[in-house]
Structure formats: structure tokens, C-alpha cells
Design a protein that fits this description.
The protein is an alpha/beta fold and about 120 residues long. The chain has helices spanning about 30-40, 65-80, 95-105; strands at about 5-10, 15-25, 50-60, 85-90, 110-115. This is STAS domain-containing protein.
Length: about 120
Amino acid sequence: MSQTGSYSIFVNQTEKTIDMSVKGTFTPQQAKDFHNDYQSKVGSINANNFTLKVDCKNMNIITQEMLPALETSFKMYKDSQFDKVEFIIEKSPVIKMQLSRIARNAGLANSEVIEV
């Protein structure tokens, strides 16, 4: 059962992290809104001193139609030049493989998929 997409982005200045949560499956409009929100929040910090932590535990398996938007997101993470990018997932070989492949394709070399 697919759940509607939602997200949150929180800049934690004390911990030097961007705490992000991604849930469900995004519509193209939600992906666009996310990209704009991301740019406005991350644009205000020096990202190379921060770790981006993305909670993907409630994210649905990535559909073919969402792939371009997700690749755009990963390229934005790369362009932001975070010190490190962590994708936190429930144990799921499929999602781990999908996120790892998209990160590799986007050139996001400093990322890690962490299963909990």
C-alpha cells in the first residue's frame, strides 16, 4: 500500500546536521516543492561543515516515474558539498540497492546507506 509523500527538513546548527525525513511516494509537484524548500534551507548554511541525515524508513520503493526527481535530489546533495550524507532505512535490500545505485549515478561518493 502506497502512502502519499511527505517530507521535513530541519537545520540543526548545534549538531551540524541537516535532519531530513522522506515518507511515502512523492508526486511530481511534491518533488518540485521539496527541491525548492531544500534549496532555501540549505542555501543558508556552509554545507561542507554539515552531515545530511535522511530518514528514509517510511519511504516507498522507488518507482520508475519518480527516478528523475530522486536523481535531481541526489545531485543537489552532491552540489551542496556536505561533509557526509547518510540515508537511514529499515532493513530492505531493494531500497538499499536503489539508493546506492542512484547515489553512484549522481556521483555522490560521500554517502552511506545505513540499515536499522
